[in-house]
Amino acid sequence: MHPKEKPTMAPSDIDLSRPSAARVYDYYLGGAHNFAVDREMAQQAIAMWPDLPLIMQANRAFLRRVVRHCVSAGVRQFLDLGSGIPTAGNVHEVARAAAADARVVYVDTDPVAVAYSRTILGQDPQTTVVQADLRHPDQLLTRPEVTSLLDWNQPVAVMMVAVLHFVPDDDTPAKIITDYRNALAPGSFLVMSHATHEGRPQQADEHRDLYRRTPTPMTMRSRAEVTAFFDGFDLVDPGVVYLPLWRPESLDEVDEHPERFTGLAAVGRKP
After folding, report:
1. How do residues 85-130 score in pLDDT, each as one tens digit?
2. DSSP assignment of 2-40, as one string?
3. 48 with 210: CB under 8 angstroms?
4. Could you give the domains of the chain?
5. CA distance 180 to 134
6. pLDDT tens, 216-256?
């Protein structure tokens, strides 16, 4: 796509001079919902860090595994924060393959991601997409689009997959998570994957520098910092681990050097 072209369903005031984290992620996954500026940034990142597409694919594989886990635990409601563009293998497809009555609310701040999501989801009565900022749960959780689909008296899986590292420390991410936790019924889940500088610190620094060009700079965190986000939740085994190590379904998913994935994955259950 030429950098000055826009999808017909997207708002006309999209800024194509700056890449979007959601659209760059779509490119890593092999999607078609990205612009030249996004592909340029992704290609620069891959040149510095050739494993990046593999890391993003491992993140998506974790999402699929954890959605199935939540469904098997009885969850039928999902709130996907920072959802990006729901290309193949996203939450509603995976959940409904296991439970036809699963309901999903997708949330993102990127207007292009939201526009594409609405087009892809169409008139599906069991899904909706909301343009909102996850940093304001008090506003998000009471919106009619959310409350009409999700019942807060029943368990909900709150998905923070590859998104919280775009929330800086100044925005008090721990307080944000606490606000979500307080709204959840017992038996709900917090699902998280998070970029970390552990394992590949030099490449992590270069990656953070690249994301400073976007509206969503990256804050990588340690295992201890990610673990602290699960205060008030019971961590599900195996705890906070590198992406391929969270309940792999086959040995093919386990790399002999899992630290090269530089992404941590964890799931907590509200008692």
Report:
1. 877 678 999 999 999 999 999 999 988 788 878 888 888 999 999 9
2. -TT---TTS-TT--TTS--HHHHHHHHTT-S---HHHHH
3. yes
4. 57-202+217-269 (3.40.50.150)
5. 10
6. 788 999 999 999 999 999 999 999 999 999 999 876 666 66
